[in-house]
Structures are given as structure tokens and as C-alpha cells.
From TrEMBL:
It comes from Oryza glumipatula. GO terms for cellular component: cytoplasm. This is glutathione transferase. Its EC number is 2.5.1.18. Coiled coil: none annotated. Residues 98-223 form the GST C-terminal domain. GO terms for molecular function: glutathione transferase activity; maleylacetoacetate isomerase activity. It catalyses: RX + glutathione = an S-substituted glutathione + a halide anion + H(+).
Length: 225
């Protein structure tokens, strides 16, 4: 689980540059938690532009979170981070041995990280608000999420068990959970259209590794008081 930077604890082996509300960071936090890996949480405030600071650009020249530091290895993409963790820390595997199910997990993860989330990240939404008009980013986002969720629902409805591709938490769940959470809490997506995904969301919200990764439980989340 995460330790806030500056806390009086022994240095963590791993360091995660993260923003509390970033769904890309969210999915990496889930993966780290599932694998039982301790890490130091290094907050990067996107709203204040800290991702454009020269020091952070040395970590990730793309100026995106998350970025994972593991010794001399620095990985600045959530999909690459997930695969790196799977290879280096194989305990609690996120990918099944069955090649067909492995491919399905990779496909679902790719739908989220290349077909949904990048189309409504903060940079895109700000551009739409500026160039198209105030309030126009929400219908755009809803369209992208609905398109991706329709595909994901069709892929998992025939093979889902307790989780997306069976009764074990896998990579597909790591990527679906933050996207569904954002859809429900931020973008007013009607989950009645996606009954399998809606049921999975309920399971994710019960799982300790998913609970600990929730945005409002991160050290840099705004105080509710």
C-alpha cells in the first residue's frame, strides 16, 4: 500500500508518481496493491501544472502520470507499468496462463487505455472547452465512454465470473475498475446499459486492494472537511 512522501518510515523500494484523480494512476495503484508491493506515493498536482516541472519531465518526458521508479528502472505509462510489474513481481499474477484468456485481458486493458481514457483526459477536455464551448466536454466524454463500454460489455458478458474474465482478479479488472468508477462518479454514465460492468463495479468496491486505491483515499486528495 502507499506511503506518503515525507512520512517517517523506511524508504519504500518503489516510487509512484501519481495524481489522486488520475484513472491511469488509479489502475497502477490497484496493481501494486494486488501484488502486495509497498511504494512511496509521490504526488503530482496536474491542476497546478506540476507535471510540466523540469524535474518531473526528467522522470517522464511525456509529462503524464503515473510514473513508476523501481531502482534504476523508470516507467512512465500505466500499461507498460502493469506489464513490468507482472514480469518482475509474478506473485499474485494478473495475467492467466491460458493464451486465449490472456489475450482477452490484454484486449480489454487496451480498450480502456487506448480507446476510452485518452479521449477524455484533462488535456483533451480543456481543449474542447476552449475551442468548442463551455460544457461541451461532458457529452464528448460520455460518447467515448459509451462506445468503449459497449465493446467491453460484449467481451466480458459471456465469460465473466465474480470478476471480468473469471473468478480471479486479472488485468482486465485493474483497467476496468478506475474507468467504471470515473464513469459513475464524474461523467453520469447510465450503467443500466452495461449490466455486467455494473455488477463488476459492485465487486470492485468490496475488494480491499481496490478500496485502498480509490481516489479519495490518496494522500493528495482534497480534504472533505
Amino acid at each position: 500500500m502507499a506511503e506518503a512522501a515525507g512520512a517517517a518510515v523506511a524508504p519504500a523500494k518503489l516510487g509512484l508518481y501519481s495524481y489522486w484523480r488520475s484513472s491511469c494512476s488509479h489502475r497502477v495503484r490497484i496493481a501494486l496493491n494486488l501484488k502486495g508491493l509497498e511504494y512511496e506515493y509521490k504526488a503530482v498536482n496536474l491542476l497546478k501544472g506540476e507535471h510540466s516541472d523540469p524535474e518531473f519531465m526528467k522522470v517522464n518526458p511525456m509529462k503524464f502520470v503515473p510514473a513508476l521508479v523501481d531502482g534504476d528502472a523508470v516507467i512512465g505509462d500505466s500499461y507498460a507499468i502493469a506489464l513490468y510489474l507482472e514480469d518482475k513481481y509474478p506473485e499474485h499474477p494478473l495475467l492467466p496462463q491460458d493464451l486465449k484468456m490472456k489475450a482477452l485481458n490484454l484486449q480489454i486493458a487496451s480498450i480502456v487505455c487506448s480507446g476510452i481514457q485518452p479521449l477524455h483526459n484533462l488535456t483533451v477536455l480543456r481543449f474542447i472547452e476552449k475551442k468548442v464551448g463551455t460544457g461541451e466536454s461532458i457529452p464528448w466524454t460520455q460518447q467515448q465512454i459509451d462506445r468503449g463500454f459497449a465493446a467491453a460489455e460484449n467481451l466480458v458478458k459471456g465469460c465473466a465470473g465474480k470478476y471480468a474474465t473469471g473468478d480471479e482478479v486479472r488485468l482486465a479488472d485493474v483497467f476496468l475498475a478506475p474507468q467504471i468508477y470515473a464513469a459513475v462518479t464524474r461523467f453520469q454514465i447510465n450503467m443500466l446499459n452495461y449490466p455486467t460492468l455494473a455488477r463488476l463495479h459492485e465487486e470492485y468496491m468490496k475488494h480491499p486492494a481496490f478500496q485502498a486505491a480509490l481516489p479519495d483515499r490518496q494522500p493528495d486528495a482534497p480534504s472533505s472537511t
